[in-house]
Write a structure and sequence with these properties.
Elements lengths: L2 E4 L1 E3 L6 E4 L8 E12 L17 E14 L4 E12 L15 E8 L2 E9 L42 E9 L7 E8 L5 E2 L18 E11 L4 E14 L13 E16 L2 E13 L5 E16 L2 E12 L9 E15 L4 E13 L5 E12 L1
Parallel strand pairs: 11-13
Antiparallel strand pairs: 1-3, 2-20, 4-5, 4-20, 5-6, 6-7, 7-8, 8-9, 9-10, 10-12, 12-13, 13-14, 14-15, 15-16, 16-17, 17-18, 18-19, 19-20
């Protein structure tokens, strides 16, 4: 029996594949992880969702496990993915260290597309097919548009892929006409949110508070030689009752919050460089009949200093309509450096990478820095 083994360990992206070419065939196994350490001078502020574990000074580790198993000669394959965030210090909530606290889903892949069911990130705001996050690594979502600095008005239920849904069904199509990739996601998490504090005073749907949010998201990606275009539409209803804001324990109005979101994004390659833009608009109808709308424009790109060294600037403008000179209006500058070094070995290679990030808000002068580092090894 001839056995070929391939091992790949990565932080944040890695794969470990073991296969046998004789009678015994083991499925490929993907293992990923990343180490991060963040420092923030935003004392007294609590971030939302995943950012809640990053915005205070403590390290964190993200681990993920995945496998794809071919199903005989049917052309089908089964897929499993589980990711867990491990944090230290004052990170909350307590379930942040539980197994599968990020994603835990199973799926079926075929020539007609892929279907996934389970706990998944919501595919809105930033398209999961290729995140507008500066890094876009597996298990990592961008902080763009999320967190306390986002400035959500109280009671605004905004759809955002900075959160996940425990019950989610997602379909992703193969390429249509050689250009378009279509995606649909449905999620449901119960009928009401009762007698609990929200993780944030300003974003009731932030995890784990998706349990009262039910909705769907439709997306399309158009790939052209000169540009790539992303389109998303989302609709969500969330039923709140006796919900309190964490900031001051003030009550939020009981009833259904009806939110719609539209997004258009684009990327233009310029040789080894690229320029990106993303425009998002959210509108939430409150139980009392009033509504509020906010818009966000994100401009960014990647400048390749060398093939292994990249500079990724991002500039964000956030505006709440119907509220003149609202304190939640702000601008933010984000700069990220990314470096990857490859070392050739007798068998395979090893890649080391690191990404320091710096963000600054114009309204308050708050600053945030973060360092992520990892490696990938092929045997």
């Amino acid at each position: 029996m001839k056995v070929k083994r391939t091992l790949l360990i990565a932080v944040p992206l890695a794969a470990c594949t073991i296969s046998a070419s004789a009678q015994v065939t083991l499925p490929p196994i993907n293992i990923s992880g990343q180490f991060e350490y963040s420092i923030s001078d935003r004392k007294g502020l609590t971030e939302q969702g995943d950012n809640e574990h990053r915005q205070r000074s403590h390290p964190g580790v993200l681990l993920a496990f995945g496998s794809v198993l071919p199903l005989d000669n049917s052309g089908l394959s089964a897929e499993l993915f589980v990711s867990t965030k491990l944090t230290t210090g004052d990170a909350t909530p307590a379930w942040s260290n539980s197994f599968g606290n990020r994603e835990a889903w199973g799926g079926i892949n075929s020539q007609y597309g892929s279907v996934r069911f389970g706990r998944q990130w919501l595919d809105s705001y930033i398209n999961v097919l290729d995140p507008y996050a500066s890094g876009g690594n597996i298990g990592e979502m961008s902080e763009l548009g999320t967190g306390a600095g986002k400035g959500y008005p109280a009671g605004l239920t905004r759809i955002s892929n900075a959160i996940w849904a425990d019950n989610s069904l997602t379909y992703t199509s193969p390429k249509v006409a050689g250009i378009a990739t279509l995606r649909a996601q449905f999620y449901w998490n119960g009928s009401s949110f009762t007698d609990e504090k929200l993780v944030s005073a300003t974003a009731p749907n932030i995890a784990p508070n998706t349990k009262a949010a039910n909705g769907y998201i439709l997306g399309a990606r158009l790939d052209y030689p000169a540009a790539r275009i992303d389109l998303n539409y989302g609709s969500q209803k969330q039923n709140l009752k006796n919900a309190l804001a964490t900031s001051d324990n003030s009550p939020l109005a009981d009833g259904v919050y009806d939110t719609t979101q539209i997004m258009i994004g684009g990327m233009v390659p310029l040789g080894t460089h690229s320029v990106r833009a993303l425009l998002v608009q959210d509108k939430t109808q409150r139980p009392n009949g009033s509504s509020i709308k906010d818009k966000e424009l994100i401009l960014g790109g990647q400048y390749s200093v060398t093939p292994n060294f990249h500079l990724r600037p991002v500039f964000m403008i956030h505006k709440v309509d119907t509220v003149p000179n609202d304190a939640n209006d702000y601008k933010q500058l984000r700069v990220e450096l990314a470096y990857k070094m490859n070392i050739g070995l007798a068998r395979g290679s090893t890649s080391f990478w690191f990404r320091p990030t710096y963000r600054k808000w114009d309204t308050s002068g708050n600053k945030f820095t973060e360092l992520r580092a990892g490696f990938t090894t092929n045997f």
